[in-house]
Amino acid sequence: MVKEVGNIEFTDVVTGKLEKYFIIEIEEETKVQFESFMANHRYWVLEGRDITDFDEYMEPLNDPDYNLKRDFQKYRKQYNFLSPEAISNYRKQLGLNLREAALILAMSFSTLSNIENGLILQSYDQEIKLRDLENPFRIFDKVDKYRTLLEQRALKRNVDIDKLLKKLEDKKLNEEKILDHSSTMKISLDVGIDSVGTTRIDKNGAFTVKDAKAAYILSNEKKVTKGSAPLEKGGETVWENKKKSTLNW
Fold this sequence. Notes:
This protein is α+β, with helices and mostly antiparallel strands and 249 residues long. The chain has eight helices and nine strands. Helix 6 packs across helix 8.
């Protein structure tokens, strides 16, 4: 079913004439890579022409790849593929530029660049490679295992391998510190007092919160409060038995 969703004026680049168009949407079967699915596509039709006549349909003149990008977007959502934005963010969190990331992932610079810019859709094999960007330690392990090969290929790809290795080593040390810190914090806060009078027992016995101001809430988000104000780094809570517990962030 054809649906008219708006209209637009656009100057014809050939004639220089300002034309008016209907903007219509229609659900069509489309095929991306090897998969077929239904998708809403948008077209322009010259004002005065039959909007039900497929021969009159034009790709949006101000964005000829509009429908293709929409198809890619639906494909990624339907099959759980990483979005261009997610890929770019994961890469940048690792401190890698496009050439460095492409080298590690065994992809060409142009391919990775086009994927991040939404110009092409990654294949299933490429998606598996890109998923390594989600976990920094997968990248660290890959570089450790194939370091000799990466050093040889870096010369041909105009990548400063020494700079790349130093960058990843620093990132690895930082990630390990974060993990160690998180583990320490989890152990130190596992007792967890939810509210006044509520106790949780660990190997050292039960602790009871003295009053509402001394209560803190422990959750997956590590929300820590004292009254209505969040405790800052190194803040303390006071237990009923007068002992203090320092929250080491």
